[in-house]
Amino acid sequence: MVLSLLVVEKNKMTNCEEISLDSRPPSYEEIKDKNGITQIILRNLRGDTVRISLYGGQVLSWKNEQGDELLFMSSKATFKPPNAVRGGIPICFPQFGSRGLLEQHGFARNRMWVIDDQPPSPRTNKSKGYATVNLLLKPSDEDLKVWPNKFEIRVRVTLSEDGNLVLRSRVKNANGKPLSFNIAFRTYFAISDISEVRVEGLETLDYLDCLQDRQRFTEQGDALTFESEVDRIYLSSSDVVALFDHGSKRTFQIRKQGLPDVAVWNPWEKKAKALTDLGDDEYKKMLCVDGSAIEKPITLKPGEEWNGQLEFTVLSSC
Ligand SMILES: *[C@@H]1O[C@H](CO)[C@@H](O)[C@H](O)[C@H]1NC(C)=O
Description:
Layout: H1 2-16, E1 27-32, E2 38-43, E3 49-53, E4 58-63, E5 91-92, E6 114-115, E7 124-125, E8 130-137, H2 141-146, E9 151-159, E10 165-173, E11 179-185, E12 188-190, E13 197-200, E14 206-209, E15 215-218, E16 230-234, E17 240-245, E18 250-257, E19 261-266, H3 268-274, E20 286-300, E21 305-316
Antiparallel strand pairs: 1-2, 2-3, 3-4, 5-11, 6-8, 7-8, 8-9, 9-10, 10-21, 11-20, 12-20, 13-17, 14-15, 14-16, 16-19, 17-18, 18-21, 19-20
The structure holds 2-acetamido-2-deoxy-beta-D-glucopyranose.
């Protein structure tokens, strides 16, 4: 139902919104941030941009052609080890949450990733107007001491010609034994105000409430709205979820494959105050809606590979 609604909106949008076509070809640029960490800036033909840091393999920014930021980034975020960056799209791997020996949400989000050039592939496509980068993380010797599992995680970040942000991920078991993991693409959407948004596509699903020891509940039939702290894992959702923002007249559509669950998080006032890397009022400007595989870990045989994909589209209502 959500899907058909959005298709209509998208068609409507192309008729009523003027898209300023800029003749610069799509581009790929590498820069260093103030800590000397490499960032990649992708730009498509239309002028949308995505900025990615090799620290965490993390998308930090996604802007439309008008320069509006679509992802939330905390004003107090730190961009260097050992902290994870509060905003954008941190990758929670190989676990979600803080169970077991591993650090909260695993270690992928605070390790240095590399650009994966094997096999070499073009970074931009002039005829199709998109730009892309392949990122790779393998465990260090230190990581293997804490979590003795050899793996390769690859994420291909693409900014499509029509401005969609696409994350294609692959995890390969490089062990001689089975590999089990959780994964979540924690996505901090930038919103006008938490009281102005609703999420559709999670109605009537079962969820685990992380504020109540992961007890299982069932969601009501209405779209989700927010008036207090939320930290939930919705189980086995359909492949399309939408975040409507009435304040900015913007809709984010999340399409996912291989990622059955959807984690939804907003820390609200009290927890925001307790988080040193989030401004006291900034919880109003963010909502995390994450494509994830949490309830049932993904298990791979030796040499086996898992694939997942997330595609974010932003639609304006006019
Ligand atoms: C551009 O993208 C199209 C569609 O994905 C592909 O068929 C073509 O080979 C690409 N061109 C280059 C130069 O990579």
